[in-house]
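Batch manifest line 264
LIGAND: S-adenosylmethionine
JOB: complex structure
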Amino acid sequence: MNTPVTIGPATLYRGDALAILPHLEGSGFDSVLTDTPYSSGGQFRSDRVLDTRSKYVSSSSAGRNLPDFSGDNRDQRAFCYWAALWSAAALHACRPGAVGMFFTDWRQLPASTDYMQAGGWVWRGIVPWCKPDARPQLGRFTAQCEYVIWGTAGAMPANPAGMALPGFYECPAPRDRVHVTQKPVELLHALLRVVPVGGVVVDPFMGSGTAGVACLQTGRRFVGIELDPVHFDNACERINDAHRQGVLFAPANDAPEQVRLTLE
Ligand SMILES: C[S@@+](CC[C@H](N)C(=O)[O-])C[C@H]1O[C@@H](n2cnc3c(N)ncnc32)[C@H](O)[C@@H]1O
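JOB STATUS: finished
ARTIFACT:
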């Protein structure tokens, strides 16, 4: 295993999540917040050799110049099997009652709730992320949402602050991206409300490190894993910037929660 990079309260590993997670067993993490490669639509061999930019970025978008990423080429059975393995390894790195939050899309939603449970998590629900700027599809329902499936490592302790969280969030996709499937940091701030301030969050597929940025900006600690060197380097840079800026948002647990999130 490569020596991790430490940036303040963040520890970042470059390598394969399946190889690294077993070394983190018993770490007592408070949450797994991750955005795996979706392997969306990988039914046929021709689908499975597609570059991620042609899958996830429209042909007219500047995002076409961003780097490709690994691991997005499994058919649905292989995806489920692989994801059950990493989600079980992630569970073993968590404390009892830890919260798992895993991103997915409409195609992989049934497979994702299956793999979460196969990995040993207690599946508790689905939080839609609604994108008001999604591309309309003539004569069809617009694929406007991605989803966060969430669950816990066994029983879920009562929230001591008695805070209630929304059942969905509305937020545009980020405009300035360094990763093809980069998530909005504002959305991750909102999801982190379920994790105690000061808690430790692991993201085994951190891409450009958005979950790490959100953790440092809101006073959580972070452990990230990324396979591709180019994305790992981007994550180190973004998390380093966040660390230099310090905690920006310390939401009081009893503050009213927003459903409509605006980009910074
Ligand atoms: C969907 S992207 C995450 C994007 C991230 N949420 C962001 O905002 O930038 C998934 C990432 O997982 C990485 N990945 C794929 N297979 C992996 C593996 N086996 N271990 C660790 N990282 C992996 C990919 O290189 C990719 O950057």
